[in-house]
TrEMBL record:
Keyword Transport tagged: no
This protein's name: Cellulose biosynthesis cyclic di-GMP-binding regulatory protein BcsB
Compartments (UniProt record): Cell membrane
Topology of this chain in the membrane: Single-pass membrane protein
Main location: membrane
Protein species of origin: Lacrimispora defluvii
Keyword set, alphabetical order: Cell membrane, Membrane, Transmembrane, Transmembrane helix
Tree of life domain: Bacteria
Transmembrane segments: 725-747
């Protein structure tokens, strides 16, 4: 294939042609624009993901409508109302349904449940609590259940005086797989008379599934066999969802790399803690009095006590590589030891453990993490920025979406975005779909919703039934908002609503897996606790976070920072930026980060530097807080409160500073306990929170609305992007020099030609 650069090379080889230089200049000038335009308009939507699916055969590439077979109500049994009896197991896991109503002649819903690799699963069954409409009393109806698209059981539905009913479904273990499994429920109402006609009230036929319904997995836990690939098991598990008994320890010196790695793993493990986070951060010397059931120990090798060095399978060498060793501690409890002779390599070892694709390769109890091994992943993420946030339906769901049955049908696409995601301008959706031709095309249409906000719709037409497309940009009113899903709804209306064929001729629609979604993220700079993880986390990764510790941080302070990182790292991914500095090391010239600091005035000298910036300033002795114009504090109350405050960083434009402060270790401990409860985190609002000794909170707003900017000003951009500015100036200068050279060459040729003519 001849490329643009091939053409350029051919033209350069032709002597006496000035057009080559002009063409090269033109290429240099348009290349950045062409690359940008391609990523946003063309390649952005179709070539979205770095990970591609394996090549499929032609037959596999054919999209299929996933239609569960319906069961004739007269030929299936009544529901099994007896709970299955199995041999007792050590652990059970319940996955509850959301309340769902199935309407019409044919309707279905799915529940996804996850089976962990470390489960030795003994049984799986479903308990369904449901209600049916009175129409069922005079109508033959059935419900069919499937696991991973394989039908397993059908039951006849009956109406029982409006009372709630319960049925049980045994799920064959041979159909259950590790990872995600889908459990499908399909309801069928045979609303036909002898001529195959349906009455006009088919939508009044419904099956409601209660949110008390669940799928239960009974299992035993597997032996991790000291394999690092099992991480985070056994340090975190489904049968210990709070992480109680797990300690993440750093050396007594609490070196910067040790703390950064510990905070990364704290955020990663906390994703599984649910309602309460009982994971502890401490120093090695504290472990003897703590009696941990599991320990993750992170230490520079020089700071590691001899008793741990003696247990290691292999010591780190002088290359700067990190060692991850899964062994037993002195009490024969699981110990994951991370150490290196290079402090900066400890964070890379933490990233390896957080990166599933790398971690799964470590099937032994010892892993050597090469220094700089994570740089490729970091650089790859930066290079893919132009084509990021583009997804196909296949990327998200692995297949297309099927809609079967008349009337209104809805399905959700759960978006692979982090909780800190906010939609920027330029979002785009391209849906490719087809549908049956037995529709009333005057009343049939497709509608797309951002969350629950309608964005676009299109009427279906017979001419395009075999291949239609809906192409639209996200409307302005949803820009700057977030949503966890896109909802696609089809209204598949039947002509005259008189007669409807049986299932084989039911109306259907199919959204192809090539359908694409472009979701550019906005830079949300609202300084508020209720704005999610921004700006400390962006796109699921820690966003240039600098932790400023006291020169001799206590376990309470480490735990308080750990719970804060857990709060902002609810979807923590590897390779985020976390740096750690002591207050005595901090230099304001190094402050171009989003800073988090915690402590007391006497224990953290950094707080003295920023005291004048705080809404609640420390008193002169540092044991209490002073009143301000929004809240008058009594002397006794001021000594018992902790304060969390967000403010614009005084050290760098468009950066944020979070301060967690108290007059004593007891007030800091109260802040830490408050943040351990995920439900209480949701109560944090505005930009300043005062928490008293009884964990009652007062939320206040000190940042004025006009101070909060949607984005940096031109001056701020110039300051923040010095390297880009320098590159732009150099590149522009080079272009002008080349243009000047071309002009001189042209003038010389003109003069030369005139001399020859004379």
């Amino acid at each position: 294939m001849t490329t643009l650069m091939d053409i350029v090379k051919k033209k350069i080889k032709r002597p006496g042609k000035i057009s080559a230089a002009c063409l090269m200049l033109f290429v240099l000038m348009i290349t950045p624009l062409a690359a940008y335009g391609y990523s946003v308009n063309a390649g952005g939507l179709s070539n979205a993901r770095e990970k591609r699916q394996p090549e499929k055969t032609d037959s596999q590439k054919e999209d299929e409508i996933h239609l569960l077979p319906v069961a004739e109500p007269e030929s299936v049994p009544l529901p099994d109302q007896n709970e299955p009896v199995y041999e007792p197991v050590s652990h059970t896991q319940d996955n509850f349904f959301y309340r769902k109503t199935l309407k019409g002649i044919y309707s279905s819903t799915d529940l996804y449940f996850y089976v962990e690799d470390y489960w030795d699963t003994k049984y799986v069954y479903a308990k369904i609590q449901y209600n049916v409409s009175q129409l069922i009393e005079s109508t033959a109806s059935s419900v069919t259940f499937a696991i991973n698209d394989v039908p397993i059981q059908s039951y006849k539905l009956e109406y029982k005086d409006g009372n709630s009913q319960i049925l049980y479904v045994k799920i064959p273990m041979e159909q259950v797989r590790s990872g995600y499994n889908s459990f499908s429920i399909s309801a069928y109402a045979r609303l036909f008379d002898q001529q195959g006609c349906v009455d006009d009230y088919s939508d009044a036929n419904w099956l409601e599934i209660a949110d008390t319904s669940y799928i239960r997995c009974g299992y035993e836990s597997r032996d991790p066999e000291y394999m690092i690939s099992f991480y985070p098991y056994p340090f975190m598990s489904t049968y210990n969802p709070t992480g109680k008994g797990l300690f993440i320890a750093v050396s007594d010196e609490a070196a910067s790399g040790e703390v950064a790695a510990a905070m990364s793993l704290m955020a990663d493990l906390s994703k599984q803690t649910g309602k309460r986070n009982e994971i502890e951060l401490c120093r090695i010397s504290d472990l003897k009095s703590m009696n941990p059931s599991n320990t993750i120990l992170i230490s520079d090798y020089n700071n590691l006590p001899a008793e741990y060095k003696d247990k290691m399978t292999k010591a780190p060498d002088s290359s700067g590589n990190a060692i991850v060793n899964f062994i037993d501690d002195s009490n024969l409890k699981p110990l994951l030891l991370i150490t290196s002779n290079d402090d900066s390599s400890l964070k890379e070892a933490a990233d390896m453990l957080m990166d599933e694709s790398r971690r799964k390769q470590e099937t032994g109890n010892l892993a050597v993490v090469e220094k700089g091994s994570g740089e490729q992943a970091v650089n790859g993420a930066k290079q893919s920025d132009l084509t990021a946030w583009n997804y196909t339906l296949e990327d998200i769901m692995g297949s297309g979406l099927s809609f079967v049955g008349p009337f209104h049908q809805e399905k959700y696409i759960y978006l692979p975005v982090s909780r800190d995601f906010v939609l920027a301008q330029g979002g785009k959706v391209v849906l490719k779909f087809r549908y049956s031709e037995n529709l009333d095309f005057k009343r049939s249409l497709i509608t797309v919703f951002w969350g629950d906000v309608p964005c676009a719709s299109k009427r279906l037409s017979q001419e395009k039934a075999s291949g239609d497309e809906l192409n639209f940009e996200m409307p302005a009113d949803v820009v700057g908002t977030s949503a966890a899903s896109l909802k696609i709804a089809f209204d598949l209306e039947i002509p005259d609503l008189i007669c409807t064929p049986r299932q084989s001729d039911m109306p259907w629609a199919y959204v192809s897996r090539e359908s694409a979604i472009f979701l550019p993220p906005a830079a949300d700079m609202r300084l508020s606790f209720d704005s999610g993880a921004s700006p400390f986390s962006r796109n699921g990764k820690f966003n240039d976070v600098l932790l400023v510790l006291g020169d001799n941080p206590t376990s309470v302070e480490l735990n308080l920072l750990g719970q804060t990182m857990a709060m902002y790292g609810r979807e923590a991914k590897p390779y985020g930026t976390i740096l750690v500095k002591r207050a005595g090391e901090f230099n304001k010239d190094d402050g171009d980060y989003n800073i988090i600091t915690a402590g007391t005035l006497s224990g953290n000298a950094f707080l003295a530097q920023i005291n004048n910036n705080l809404a609640f300033q420390f008193s002169q002795d540092g044991n209490t807080f002073e009143s301000n114009d929004q809240l008058i504090l009594s002397r006794d109350y001021a000594a018992k409160i902790g304060v969390m405050q967000l403010l614009k960083s005084p050290y760098s434009l468009n950066r944020t500073l979070l301060v967690l402060a108290g007059g004593s270790q007891d007030t800091l401990k109260n802040l830490e306990d408050y943040l351990r409860d995920s439900s209480k985190r949701e109560e944090l609002k505005k930009d300043c929170v005062v928490i008293d000794a009884y964990q009652n909170i007062t939320t206040l707003k000190f940042i004025k609305a006009e101070e909060v900017k949607e984005g940096p000003t031109l001056a701020e951009k110039l300051v923040r992007n010095k390297k880009s500015l320098v590159f732009t100036v150099i590149a522009t200068s080079a272009m002008f020099l080349m243009l000047f050279a071309v002009i001189i060459i042209l003038l010389r040729i003109r003069v030369y030609r005139k001399k020859n003519e004379e």
